[in-house]
């Protein structure tokens, strides 16, 4: 059950970001993996207030905002981030961290595969320098011990996704061996997909959810997008232009898959997690294990896009 944003928190957000007085109470708009989104109408406009559900460091938020500003300057359509009156990106409330964006009215559909491929190519031409190394989530295998621990926990709990995880365990072990350290990196969005590239109510494309952006190799991000699209991969690859990715370029997609399955699996089995979180995590596990990325799947995908 989603509550309301308190009047105290609303007043804090409007004051710190200089948004003007709230015209009415914030309205819950959406829930993502990293937070909740509220629509806030004030006398100065309409804003998207993101309430983080995970820890957020100001330095990291400042980095992703710098990338957003560079992308916007290069013509990438996005809701512009809003800084506080003293130049910060985030504000820490009593129980959560908040950040603010311009509000965008979305239409009912996401981008088609060709749109995604062409837009990703534009994003990669921004060439924003990477700050820091590529973190393990995007570049390191989960490892046999953690795979086995997850499978054992699922088996003991009688999880609905235990059997498919067991069935794919050998292939997931083998896929870990394909993950290699990056050769080079630039700043990438790292979450380009049909959920985060949408059409506005007016029909224009807009790129959302930049909080996951950071260092990665462009080829890795292209490979991850092609896998995510499935049947639309060939159209996206053609619109992106240039040679298709190689097998090794799926390193990031494989690393993220492993860490996501571990994250969702542990959350689905966690009695301390909310029912909403457990339900969402279980659905994610079932969907991902119905179509896991493996060495054989990479070969089939590359045959299709070449």
CATH fold type of the largest domain: Aminoglycoside 3'-phosphotransferase, Chain: A, domain 2
Largest sheet: 6 strands, antiparallel
Instruction: Please tell me the CATH architecture of the largest domain by its name.
Output: Alpha-Beta Complex
What class would the helix/strand composition place it in? alpha+beta
CATH class of the largest domain: Alpha Beta
Mean of residue pLDDT? 95
* Total E-strand runs: 11
> Any idea how many domains?
2
Low-confidence stretches: none
Helical fraction:
40-55%
What is the overall number of helices?
A: 11
In words, what does this structure look like?
Helix 3 packs parallel to helix 8 (233-240) and helix 5 packs antiparallel against helix 6 (162-176). The chain folds into two domains: 7-103, Phosphorylase Kinase, domain 1 (2-Layer Sandwich), CATH 3.30.200; 110-305, Alpha-Beta Complex (Aminoglycoside 3'-phosphotransferase, Chain: A, domain 2), CATH 3.90.1200. The mean pLDDT is 95. The longest helix has 18 residues, at 251-268. With 306 residues, it is an alpha+beta fold. It is globular. The chain has helices spanning 7-17, 58-73, 113-126, 136-139, 144-157, 162-176, 218-229, 233-240, 251-268, 275-290, 295-305; strands spanning 27-31, 35-42, 45-52, 81-82, 91-92, 97-102, 106-110, 186-188, 197-200, 205-207, 214-216. The strands form three sheets. Strands 1, 2, 3, 4, 5 and 6 form a six-stranded antiparallel β-sheet that branches. The N and C termini lie far apart (47 Å).
């Amino acid at each position: 059950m989603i509550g309301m944003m308190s009047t105290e928190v609303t007043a804090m957000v409007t004051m710190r970001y200089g948004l003007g007085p709230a015209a009415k109470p914030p309205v819950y708009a959406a829930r993502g993996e990293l937070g909740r989104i509220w629509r806030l109408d004030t006398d100065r406009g309409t804003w998207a207030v993101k309430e983080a559900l995970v820890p957020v460091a100001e330095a990291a938020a400042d980095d992703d905002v710098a990338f957003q500003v560079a992308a916007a300057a290069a013509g990438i359509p996005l809701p512009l981030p809003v800084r506080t009156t003293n130049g910060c990106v985030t504000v820490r409330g009593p129980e959560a961290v908040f950040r603010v964006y311009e509000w965008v009215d979305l239409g009912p559909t996401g981008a088609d595969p060709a749109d995604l491929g062409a837009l990703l190519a534009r994003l990669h031409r921004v060439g924003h320098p990477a700050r820091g190394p590529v973190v393990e989530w995007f570049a390191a295998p989960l490892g046999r011990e953690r795979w086995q621990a997850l499978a054992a926990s699922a088996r003991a709990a009688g999880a609905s996704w235990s059997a498919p995880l067991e069935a794919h365990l050998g292939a997931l072990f083998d896929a870990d061996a394909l993950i290699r350290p990056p050769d080079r990196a630039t700043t990438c969005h790292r979450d380009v997909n049909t959920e985060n590239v949408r059409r506005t109510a007016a029909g224009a494309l807009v790129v959302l959810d930049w909080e996951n952006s950071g260092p990665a190799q462009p080829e890795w991000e292209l490979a991850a997008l092609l896998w995510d699209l499935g049947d639309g991969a060939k159209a996206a690859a053609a619109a992106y232009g240039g040679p298709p990715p190689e097998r090794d370029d799926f390193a990031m997609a494989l690393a993220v898959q492993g860490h996501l399955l571990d994250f969702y699996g542990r959350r689905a089995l966690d009695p301390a997690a909310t029912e909403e979180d457990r339900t969402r995590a279980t659905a994610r596990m079932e969907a991902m294990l119905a179509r896991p990325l493996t060495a054989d799947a990479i070969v089939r995908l590359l045959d299709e896009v070449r």
